[in-house]
Write a structure and sequence with these properties.
Largest sheet of chain A: none
CATH class of chain A: Mainly Alpha
Number of domains of chain A: 1
Number of strands of chain B: 0
Number of helices of chain A: 17
Number of domains of chain B: 1
Strand content of chain A: under 5%
Structural class of chain B: mainly alpha
Shape of chain A: globular
Shape of chain B: globular
Number of strands of chain A: 0
Radius of gyration of chain A: 24 Å
Helix content of chain A: 55-70%
Structural class of chain A: mainly alpha
Largest sheet of chain B: none
Oligomer: heterodimer
Radius of gyration of chain B: 21 Å
CATH superfamily of chain A: Formate dehydrogenase/DMSO reductase domain
Distance between the termini of chain A: 40 Å
Helix content of chain B: over 70%
Chain lengths: 465, 398
């Protein structure tokens, strides 16, 4: 009876010769250092871009939705495209923090804080568009089921209302999850910082954390419960976003595979965004020991998988559009690929289906420069996917006499670009003031965290030998 | 990553008892089923083929689910599942002859598939339109492709794994991964199209892009239940009790819980989108399956296949409660059969649930023979991949 008793060495999640103290120092020093010059420059640019967005929104509210390129029949275009795009990006954070947590993927610890923060800011950008696209923004509170003197209730049968609930729930739970995870690290910051005011602020938000046994037990429990609650939310948000389209009878929108296909697409774009940001940040802050090439490789595998699921859905949709024999459905799909928006369709196919196929090859998965380029390509592709879905089906609908073509105005373009300003303003503030890596969690995946570690090293830590 | 060395060696017996009475028992039941069903073929030919397709798609869903289970473990290099992997490996090995079991369906196509009937082709415009895809030669070619792909994957993954029992060549482990990654891609397309061909095309006007995912979701939930049943059966026989521990059982239970939700998510999304849009070419499929007493089964799936296992498996303790797990798993497998029944049979028996004795005999035939084959193969080799490089980690799981 032969048996392989060799233990396959686990790939170290944290590279370099780190111990608990050096991890704490590496992360908690960042908010205490002098603000680097590039940060001021980046923050300044983000602020300007955000100001442009605010000006565009002000103009929109002053003048009306007519300042956008919307026409008849294209009543939905960039606004909804941008909404779905941003909300899709906001899926990675909770997937990484909740689902990967439940699957006990230790490598998530290096990137979860980062991804969660990105999620919250992305969802904020997303929420902006439905709010401003209503035309009469002063009546926006009507989307909430508030009892009022006019006996006015939202339409509970409408997925647009479910969307409001889904996105808000997601935002609240994600923020809570993010904050709960931050508490031990905020306490670390409180103990490290020198300034009185910063100590007071970190201390306030650390909620009196001392790192006692009982606190950790409660913390672990609440983290587990939040992970359990967040997991269905990852699926539900984009499922309901897909319902916005799929419950209708518009050709190209009404297809049953939409829910899982949208979720896969969301995870796909979210991971791409995390990679784009992470690759820059790890370089700027010299975090290559924590956010390693192994992490990039694993994320690229998820990108390959989700990208291929999206490709699978495109193929099945196309086949069923023919197979179903419904004339309008067939037209919608052929028109997508060969009609006036063919350029957008082929950008989508190239970016979303073709480009991730590089990641079948290990060498490409571990190539940081290529990953960075592809991560941006993918998000361009995912924007075009939403654009293709939203606009092509509307522009050529059932009635050929009313067919149109959508062209964006400068307000459309600048509002969209402006949301990057909003996103990066918050993101840079996060990088500057909060520990961007979950310190306590990364320590948990160090070999030193194994109770048997010191025993097998004669009571010594390897790094102190 | 525990360093407790006493766990890292295998102390259980690794082979299934020589006498293998259970295989013999299943074969006997299977042969009885075959004989009775053959009588039924002459008594009620049409019913025979409908019952045959029901049982075939039921067994196929389990075997395909097992193939996916094996491939996903290799791709993710998961260590926890090593000690139980030989079970789904042995199940998916049966893909080798699943194609043979499909052959009888080719003789009953005129009963099962309205698009093959000449009078239908002559009068129905949509059937004519679908001819380039829905025609008998192409149908046969497609199925040959499906069974070749699956047979190859199931056979290779099993053979490599068994070969690893005799050598500790790490190249074999790598082979499994190299096979599994593209294997999953092929799996996705072949299973989707197979489900379109076998089941969706029975209502030749109906279409749903979700249908392939729906078939997959059902099959994966069911195979998890099957693996749990087999592991707990082995425990009852006193086998592998020191090799498979509660941590492994807990993970299987957690996966069963997760994919119960996934099944409900997919099945409900498909229903909701069709119900909401309410266009006749799509709603008709549900119309027949909700008509008369058929709706009882639809409610049974909602409550029995989602609500009940969801509530029962939610708690942490439930996932290691053997009695409960066994009960829920058997229940889910029964419901998987009933769901196939619910998909296939309303075409033959419109408006009311109608069981025929052929449903039982063919199920007996399929289930008996495939379970017999499973246990016969399971008895031939070690019950766990004893040379797998990740075995030690799997044994140490706690």
């Amino acid at each position: 009876m032969s048996q392989n008793t060799a233990i396959v060495p686990n790939n170290q999640l944290v590279k370099g010769n780190h111990d608990f103290a050096s991890i704490t120092k590496l992360i908690s020093d960042i908010p205490q250092e002098r603000t680097p010059l590039w940060w001021y420059i980046a923050f300044g640019i983000s602020n300007i871009v955000m100001a442009v967005m605010l000006a565009m929104i002000a103009w929109l509210i002053w003048e009306g939705v007519g300042v956008w390129g919307l026409n008849n029949p294209v009543g939905w275009a960039w606004d909804i495209t941008n909404f779905v795009w941003w909300v899709g990006i906001g899926h990675a954070g909770t997937l990484i923090s909740a689902i990967l947590f439940l699957f006990r993927q230790g490598w998530r610890t290096a990137i979860n804080r980062f991804a969660e923060s990105m999620t919250i800011f992305a969802v904020m950008c997303a929420g902006l568009f439905p709010a401003i696209h209503v035309g009469r923004i002063w009546a926006i509170y009507w989307i909430f089921p508030l009892p009022n003197s006019m006996q006015l209730w939202p339409n509970f049968n409408s997925p647009l209302l479910w969307d409001v609930f889904a996105v808000f729930t997601y935002l609240i739970v994600s923020t809570l999850f993010w904050y709960v995870g931050l508490i031990p690290d905020l306490a670390t910051m409180r103990d490290k910082v020198k300034g009185t005011i910063s100590r007071l602020l970190y201390g306030t938000f650390a909620l009196g954390w001392t790192g006692g046994n009982r606190q950790w037990q409660n913390y672990e429990k609440s983290y587990m419960i939040l992970a359990g609650l967040s997991t269905p939310l990852v699926l539900s948000v984009h499922t309901i976003v897909s319902f916005d389209f799929a419950v209708s009878i518009i050709p190209g929108w009404h297809t049953t595979i939409f829910p899982p296909y949208f979720v896969a697409g969301a995870v796909f774009s979210g991971f791409a965004m995390v990679l784009s940001l992470m690759i820059i940040t790890r370089k700027l802050y010299k975090l290559e020991d924590i956010m390693t090439v192994d992490h990039i490789e694993k994320m690229n595998i998820i990108i390959l998988v989700t990208g291929t699921i999206v490709g699978f859905a495109y193929a099945i949709e196309f086949f069923i559009a023919w197979y179903g024999g419904v004339e309008y459905e067939k037209f919608a799909f052929v028109n997508r690929a060969f009609g006036p928006y063919a350029w957008a369709y082929w950008i989508m196919i190239t970016c979303n289906v073709v480009s991730p196929q590089f990641f079948w090859v290990k060498k490409f998965r571990r190539n940081v420069a290529l990953t960075f380029i592809l991560s941006i390509v993918i998000n361009i592709g995912m924007w075009f996917e939403r654009f293709v879905i939203v606009v092509t089906s509307l522009a050529q609908d059932f009635l050929p006499s009313s067919w149109g073509y959508f062209s964006p105005t400068y307000v459309d373009v600048l509002t969209y670009i402006g949301t990057f300003g909003l996103f990066f303003t918050f993101f840079l503030l996060f990088l500057r003031f909060l520990p961007m890596v979950a310190i306590s969690e990364v320590k948990g995946v160090l070999p030193q965290a194994n109770p048997a570690y010191y025993r097998s090293n004669n009571g010594k830590s390897k790094t102190t030998e | 990553m525990s360093m407790d060395h006493h766990h890292t060696t295998l102390s259980d017996r690794l082979t299934f008892p020589e006498d293998n009475k259970i295989a013999t028992g299943f074969f006997a039941a299977g042969i009885l089923g075959v004989v009775l069903s053959l009588i039924g073929l002459f008594v009620n030919t049409e019913q025979f083929f409908y019952s045959y397709l029901t049982s075939f798609t039921f067994i196929a869903s389990l075997v395909l689910g097992a193939l996916f289970f094996v491939m996903i473990q290799h791709v993710t290099r998961s260590s926890w599942s090593v000690v139980i992997r030989r079970i789904p490996e042995t199940i998916s090995f049966q893909l080798l002859w699943l194609g043979l079991l499909f052959v009888p369906i080719l003789f009953g196509m005129e009963f099962l598939y309205e698009w093959t009937r000449p009078e239908r082709i002559a009068t129905d415009e949509l059937t004519q339109y679908k001819q380039p895809y829905l025609n008998i030669p192409f149908f046969v070619i497609r199925n040959v492709i499906y069974f070749t792909v699956w047979g190859f994957l199931g056979y290779k993954l099993y053979k490599n794994s068994v070969a690893m029992d005799l050598s500790d060549d790490p190249a074999l482990d790598k082979k499994q991964r190299v096979l599994s990654a593209p294997g999953i891609l092929l799996f996705a397309f072949t299973v989707a199209f197979a489900s379109f061909d076998w089941l969706m095309s029975m209502d030749s006007h109906w279409f749903s892009t979700m249908f392939g995912v729906y078939y997959f979701a059902m099959s994966f939930q069911s195979i998890l239940a099957v693996v749990i049943i087999i592991v707990l059966y082995l425990f009852r026989k006193g086998l592998l009790t020191k090799t498979i521990n509660n941590a492994h059982i807990h993970d299987l239970g957690a996966l069963l819980f997760g994919f119960t939700v996934f099944y409900a998510y997919i099945a409900f999304s498909q229903f909701l989108l069709i119900y909401y849009a309410n266009i006749p070419e799509e709603t008709l499929w549900y119309y027949y399956r909700f008509e008369g007493s058929w709706i009882i089964l639809a409610y049974l799936f909602l409550i029995g296949r989602f609500v009940l296992p969801f509530v029962l498996l939610l708690g942490k303790k439930a996932k290691t409660n053997y009695k409960l797990l066994m009960g829920v798993s058997i229940w889910i497998v029964i419901l998987q059969f009933l769901e196939m029944f619910w998909i296939v049979m309303p075409i033959l028996h419109k408006g009311a649930i109608s069981f025929h004795w052929l449903d039982i005999t063919l199920l007996l035939a399929f289930f008996g023979i495939s379970s017999g084959l499973f246990f016969r193969h399971f008895g031939k080799h070690s019950m766990i991949p004893k040379n797998d490089p990740l075995l030690a980690e799997s044994l140490n799981k706690h």
